Amino acid sequence: MLHHHWKKGGLLLALAFLSLTGCGPSHPTEESTNASSTSLDLSSTYSSSTEVHDYGELIPQVEPTCTEDGMKAHYRCSDCGKLFTEEFVETTEEELRIPALGHHYGEEIPEVPSTCVQTGVRAHYHCDRCDKLFVKEGDEYREVTLEELTLPLGEHQYGDLIPETSSTCLEQGTAAHYVCSECGKLFDEDKHEVSAADLVLPYADHQYGEEIPEMAPTCVKTGVAAHYECAVCHKLFVKVGDEYIEKQATDLVLPKISHDYTYVYTLTGHHQVCSVCGEETETVPHSFNDDGECECGFHMHTLADHAYVDLSVSATSIDVTDIAKATNNGAATLKDGWSIYDTNGAIIADGSGTASLAFAKTGKQTYYLYDGSGAQAYSFDLYVADHLIASQDNLSLLQWDGTNNVTGYFVVRNDITCGNTAIVGPTRTDKSNVGFVGTLDGAGHVISHAVIGLGGIFGTLSGIVKDI
Fold it and tell me: Which of 72, 217, 385, 415 has most Cβ atoms within 10 angstroms of its Cβ?
């Protein structure tokens, strides 16, 4: 329910009437004018009423576009529909209207020509306010779509015809063609689009030329079978009927002819000589089987007797009488033309039953009896000792005396039978001494029937005992 308000001399009089609607001024009814004289006549106290509007929220300004008007911010009374400015001054829609801006065409955008891979765009204008597109026809601007501005794809740029590249037996050639400089696509001579595979030419035939004749093998070199060689790719072929069949170089190799070898012997090895080409093989050491025979026919006999040197008696010579007898039908001299050789094949003695030798060290050394060219020789071992052990009594040489260590190289000269006699060596009392520290080489002999008592043969053993 709305009320009107009046003012008189600063006195605000408020009268409540019947329920009224609307924001316009209120006037007394007929009944009120005929009322009792006691009623107060206020007709002279006002000429109009103050309207009270329901402005509501401020309606924000609507900006104008290129083609649509805008409207200033304003209020609208929800009861009477009247319009008011932001200062609550009544106004009209025309006064609030903001005129449309119109299009801003700017400078003409020049045409973008088409290519064979990209469509072009006609010259046009672009409004930077609404993003719409226009073309100018006379003095008028006509709105258009992007589709209307699009130019169709252009022609390919074929350029000059690229000539054919001929094939060989190594590489495939390429047919004459065009290449578009814009899109890179390929075209045949009739300017039909093709793929790279369509332009590939087949391989050409091999250039076989004349047949290369056979090179016969020898016992020195392999041969080569008759064949053809392509002048372009250098591949090899043999002709079977009318067909050329590719071969590898190894397929054409003819094996060597075997040598006609005979053996040539030395004491330490052998080699072979070809009777056809004179080719000599490398000298290799003999390899003997259990019977002392080598594949070359050389026979090495091993003598049962050994030679011995006792350096405590003589350091300069050995008696090879027994060795000579074994190789010369019992005679006490070497066979004519035979000599004693060392393991390096060097002659160290010849022509007599006694050989003078200089011994650089003790131990077992092997020597040979040989005539220098034959197919057999005899080997024997020479033992060089500081002392030879030839009897039970000699065993005392091995015993520690309780004070000094026993050193040196001792060799058993022959089998020794001790007759069940006890052998008692000294016992160790001083830990700073170790007893026997030398080497006892049995040379394959046997010491038997020995009764080992306290202290044993050596007393205390810290040396080497072998081959006994």
Answer: 385
